Amino acid sequence: MSSDVIIATHDLNLWYNSTHALQSVSMQVKKNNVTALIGPSGCGKSTLLRCFNRLNDLIDHVRVTGEITLDSENIHRPGTDVVSLRKRVGMVFQKPNPFPKSIYENVAYGPRVHGVRDTKELDRIVEESLRHAALWDEVKDRLSDSALSLSGGQQQRLCIARTLAVGPEVILMDEPCSALDPIATAKIENLIDLLKKEYTVIIVTHNMQQAARVSDYTGFMYLGKLIECGKTSQIFEHPNEELTENYITGRFG
Amino acid sequence: MDRAGTQMGDPGRDSGRNTAAALRERGIKTLFFCTAATAVIVVAFILLFLLADALPIFTLVGLPDFLLGQTWAPSAAEPLYGIFPLIVGTLLVTFGAMVFAVPLSIGTAVYIAELASPRVKSILKPAIELLAGIPSVVFGFFGLIVLTDFIRVVFDLPTGETWLAASVLLGIMALPTIISVSEDAITAIPREYREGSLAIGATRWQTISRVIVPAALSGIAAAIILGIGRAVGETMAVMMVAGNAAIIPDPIWNILSPVRTLTGTLGIEMGEVAVGSDHYSALFGVAVVLLVITLIINLSAVAILRHIHEGSSARPGRKPLLPAQLKEPVSRSLKYGLIGVVIIFLFAALPVHLAVGILLIGVAGYFGRDRISRFHIEKASFGLIIISALTVLIILVIILADIVINGLPALSWEFLTQPPTDLGRGGGIYPAIIGTLYLVAGAIAIALPLGVGAAIYLVEYTREGRITKLIRTGVDLLNGTPSIVFGLFGFAFIVIYLNVGISMLAGQVTLALMVMPTIIRTTEESLKSIPASLREGSLALGATKWQTISRVVLPPAVPGIVTGSILSIGRAAGETAPIMFTAVVFSQRFLPDSVFDPVMALPYHLFILATNVPGASASKYGTALVLLILVVGLYSAAIWVRTHFQNKIRG
Ligand SMILES: Nc1ncnc2c1ncn2[C@@H]1O[C@H](COP(=O)(O)OP(=O)(O)OP(=O)(O)O)[C@@H](O)[C@H]1O
Ligand SMILES: [Mg+2]
């Protein structure tokens, strides 16, 4: 396995009760790149994404087989500390979900739960994260306002800042723009481009242009299977599979 | 179908019928309006009658001296009517009850909402509803026999009837309210918050303690306020275990001192006072004060809950309950205040070395928290939470076991079918069983049509506006009125003013007023859960409003209405305070001939046996068990109806 692979799955299967939602998925995610996951609704994109930080553990009756590695460590190995796994693999959800606290407290929440008490240090992390998420200038004068008073796009960037504040290595994004207007979407897309310098981003999107714009690699999923995965330019211009081509060109069904 | 045919075929008759139908529709609407207005009228009447009867004492003594006077001695040669010790007693007892109940309740609520497996949940939730169903006189009986004795032995006192006993008992009684409302609040927190926090790498405990509970805080606050309201308004249980000396404990935190509450005073003295005397008026003054306190408490809880309800979509620009600048200092002072209070109580209730020990552990834990890994903190917190849920369960088991084990031997055919002999020591409780059934049947026959009508009016016939607001407030006020106040009102209005006398009818009406809010609430809920599309579908076919309501909206709402009615029946069957002065006698060999005769009733019978008849141990426990079976049976039926039909609707 080459050293620039950060996450890899091998023969990964997942069942919800009897629904076989992921079928023998094997893929590799390259460090400091943006990888997009595309595919029709219900094909298992979110499920796969939530495997990477084991958020599926929260759902009853989920069964997983196969292997997922983070930096060559199996994340299902007994004794794995799920909490520190989630610290390393952050997540931004489809619907912005800021906590009902102030803007400041939202961002400071992560560092606090990981043991940072020093106020100066917290202030620094909050400012840096908000700057990183391109939100600082818009909120710097109202940090103690409720996060719920922000617009949807600002809330989503706040959620990104909240994720950045714990210093993850990988950021998972599940349709982060689907609740946003085009302007807010453009801001987030620019942000993703900046983020890949320091982080690895895996993004689920329904928007083909978005995948083409922001990602370096793209995986196409269909009915629980990863049909193919490769460089974005290759997937969009010369897909190996007919299924992929049909989906990308909108000839589907 | 064929009616539509005739209408189309015969336009002349059709228009005649339309005016008739329109008239009928208007009549129906007016009728429902009248039922809805009852709630407001009753509240107005209660206020009016209490105030009218209290006025003489306010003018005689003067309001400041009445409220702040240090001595309550209404039967002295020179009577004194200062209710300050009673107010203090009420506050202290309630406060102690909350110190006991709040941690247990929140722990249990968090356990049910966040930690329990579905199986455990399916045991715990009905158990807590069961606890809510136990009549207060049965709690009082248990407290008198078991709890006070326990306290007497543990603290080596001459009697265990103390502030401590009253607070523990009231705390137990407030548990179900606080637990279920807090649990609802916690469960209502969107899953996204949970996932958001866990995805950052917070532990489950950090997520619960820093995101979920703070987000549910206003709901939990409302739960506590409702619990306080319940404790302040409770009469029978408190009166049976508090010792009832009208003194202020000395020192003020001496929880082993007897105390007397406002409600207890009414319960004890109302039965013996001469109508129209100064003392009589003073008791109504006490009732007014009690009413004002509970109204403030309940209305603030209702306001908080409504605020949450309306703000649940978390619209931006929604006004927070507390301005942001105030939040920090308020929460901080609350925190330190609470810690101080807990320390005082620790030292008051426990031997000194034990209290110091606990304090040291607490301090060590606080300063050592950075050294302890957060996984150990999580383990310890979950341990405490599980312990609190277990404690609640154990309390329930102890109460039930005591009454069932001691009560079963007393049950016999004779006990159920014979009238009492020898002041209830011998014979049976047949007239009390029948009397309770009569009272409850009458109460529900009055309350059901009024309550359902009011709910239909509120949900189906009006837009939200000034009138609905007024009616809703009326219902909220009624709901928060202590049962003893209903008792006083029933006595002053029905027994004396309408000159009906102590009679079954007076008891039935009083109970009906008391349970009406429950019926209105549950009916409203079930009507609101019927989707608007059903109504529109029916109206679009040309059905009139009343046709739509009676054929489309009401049928699926029936299970909800039935549940509410059964809960009300259970509540009415177990209540003592409202019938104590309006309807009951202690012992009579025969059944009443008409609604104008007084009756025997199970809860009152148990109360008198427990407090005034020495050596009737078997019949006491027997009566308690019969009452418990009756009420708990009704509650179980209500729970069954609810879950059965819920499952059916969900498919
Ligand atoms: N909690 C769950 N319980 C049972 N089945 C589930 C659960 N979550 C998802 N599924 C099923 O697993 C399959 C994959 O779902 P998933 O949410 O991963 O799809 P998706 O590709 O993210 O779809 P979308 O683009 O609509 O978000 C679907 O068939 C879905 O019905
Ligand atoms: Mg999805």
- The main sheet of chain A orders its strands as 6-7-8-3-9-10
What oligomeric state is this?
heterodimer
> Helicity of chain B, in percent?
over 70%
How many discrete domains of chain A?
Answer: 1
Largest sheet of chain B: 2 strands, antiparallel
Instruction: Say what the CATH topology of the largest domain in chain B is.
Output: MetI-like fold
Q: How many beta-strand segments of chain B?
A: 4
Overall residue-averaged pLDDT value of chain A = 90
Which superfamily, in CATH terms, is the homologous superfamily of chain A? P-loop containing nucleotide triphosphate hydrolases
Give an overview in words.
The complex is a heterodimer of chains A (253) and B (651). Chain A is α/β, with parallel strands linked by helices. Chain A has helices spanning 45-52, 82-88, 103-113, 119-132, 136-139, 152-164, 182-195, 208-214, 232-237, 242-248, and strands at 5-16, 19-30, 34-38, 62-70, 73-74, 89-92, 170-174, 200-204, 217-222, 225-231. In chain A, the strands form two sheets. In chain A, strands 6-7-8-3-9-10 form a six-stranded mixed β-sheet, sandwiched between helices. In chain A, strands 2-1-4-5 form a four-stranded antiparallel β-sheet, with helices on one face. Chain A is globular. With 651 residues, chain B is an all-alpha fold. Chain B has two domains: 27-53 and 411-651, Orthogonal Bundle (MetI-like fold); 89-259 and 328-408, MetI-like fold (Orthogonal Bundle). Chain B contains 26 helices and four strands. Chain B has helices at 2-9, 11-61, 63-68, 84-115, 118-133, 136-155, 163-187, 191-199, 204-215, 217-233, 236-241, 262-269, 278-310, 324-349, 352-367, 374-407, 413-417, 430-461, 466-480, 483-497, 504-528, 532-540, 545-574, 577-580, 602-612, 617-650, and strands spanning 72-73, 80-81, 420-421, 426-427. In chain B, helix 21 (504-528) packs across helix 23 (545-574). Chains A and B meet through helix 2, helix 3 and helix 6 of A and helix 8 and helix 9 of B. Bound molecules: adenosine-5'-triphosphate and magnesium ion. Adenosine-5'-triphosphate binds at residues 16, 19, 21, 39, 41-47, 59 of chain A.
